[in-house]
Structures are given as C-alpha cells and as structure tokens.
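Priority: medium. Attachment 1 of 2:
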C-alpha cells in the first residue's frame, strides 16, 4: 500500500508542472488591429493588446494610444476627433449641421471587406485577431469612405506589437515571462523521471 501511494504522489509531481505550463500558455494576451483614416493621405494604425476575451470598439480606441475626443451620451459615445482631425468636444458635430455632413464613421473588417458598423463602438465585441476602423469623411452609410484595406498581420507584426497599446503593456510582459515555462516544466519532468527510476531500482534491490 505504501509503495502504491508513493507512485501516486510521484505521478502527481510529474503531471503538475505540465498542467501549470499548459494553463499559463493558454492565458496569453489577445491582440486586435485599429486603423484610423484621417484623410486621403494620412492613416494611423495601432496594434492593441488586451487580456480579456473581448473588449468594446471604444475600449480598443481608448487603449490604442491615439489622441481622440468623444462626446458621451446616454446612447453611447460619439467620436469628435482623432489625432486632431474632426471637431472639439464642445462642438462635436461641427461639420454635420447640414449637407454635406462629415464625421468619424466606425467600421469593422469582416472576411477581408470593410463593413459600416451597425451599432456603436460601445456595444461591439472585439476579439483576438479582429480589425476595427475609423474614417473621417462624408457622414452617411452610402457615402462614407472606408479605411484602406489592411490585414491583421500587416498591423500586428512583431515589430509594432510590443510598443503599442500602453494599457496592455503589463499583459504583454506577463505573456513574455511565461514563454519559458514549458521548457522549464520539461526539464523538471525529466529530472523527476530520473529520480523515480533510481528510486524504483533502489526499492527493487532492497
């Protein structure tokens, strides 16, 4: 009985590092791309890192590091300006009093095509690998100008993902810190297996 209990304890010690490493690897942060078309010549892109499974489109803009102004209402937020393009907070619809009307339209990339968002940015769910967009221009669904065509990989490359998204810096550091854990777990398991082998041989010989 004592011998069997010893094997169960040993088995638990062997499996624990692997289970821990698997869990930590599964907690890696998510990323989404943001594209802001200021005009025909100026486009800003950001790769935003977040730990939650989903965040709202507004939270993505908030964490992007872009300078922006919004008008908060009971129905949500209305983007006034991004990087100085648009209207001030005290006159958020300064370019939309008549025809033509210009404002910041909100877009979502789906299957490689930009789609004008059917709901406001506070109500959307942004997931890992998504691409969201904002565009300054004509304020109607039919006349609005979509952001330029991009892919998630073009924005969230290894070169740009690290310094972007100040709100997600801690999550990125945590993800980097856990990348070595599977290797450490492998070494620990190998050592434990070697010790178990010696223990069994010693027990068999006594």
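Attachment 2 of 2:
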């Amino acid at each position: 009985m004592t011998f069997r209990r010893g094997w169960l304890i040993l088995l638990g010690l062997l499996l624990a590092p692997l289970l821990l490493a698997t869990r930590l690897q599964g907690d890696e942060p998510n990323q989404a791309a943001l594209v802001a078309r200021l005009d025909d010549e100026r486009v800003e892109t950001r790769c935003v890192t977040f730990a939650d499974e989903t965040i709202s489109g507004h939270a993505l803009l908030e964490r992007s590091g872009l300078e922006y102004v919004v008008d908060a209402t009971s129905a949500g937020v209305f983007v006034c300006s991004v990087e100085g393009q648009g209207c001030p907070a005290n006159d958020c619809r300064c370019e939309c009093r008549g025809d033509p009307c210009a404002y910041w339209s909100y877009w979502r990339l789906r299957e490689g095509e930009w789609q004008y968002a059917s709901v406001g940015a506070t109500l959307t769910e942004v997931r890992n690998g998504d691409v969201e967009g904002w565009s300054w221009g004509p304020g109607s669904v039919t006349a609005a100008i979509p952001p330029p065509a991009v892919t998630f990989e073009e924005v969230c490359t290894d070169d740009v993902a690290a310094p972007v998204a100040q709100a997600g810096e801690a999550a990125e550091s945590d993800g980097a810190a856990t990348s070595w854990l599977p290797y450490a777990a492998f070494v620990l398991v190998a050592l434990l297996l070697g010790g178990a082998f010696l223990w069994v041989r010693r027990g068999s010989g006594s």
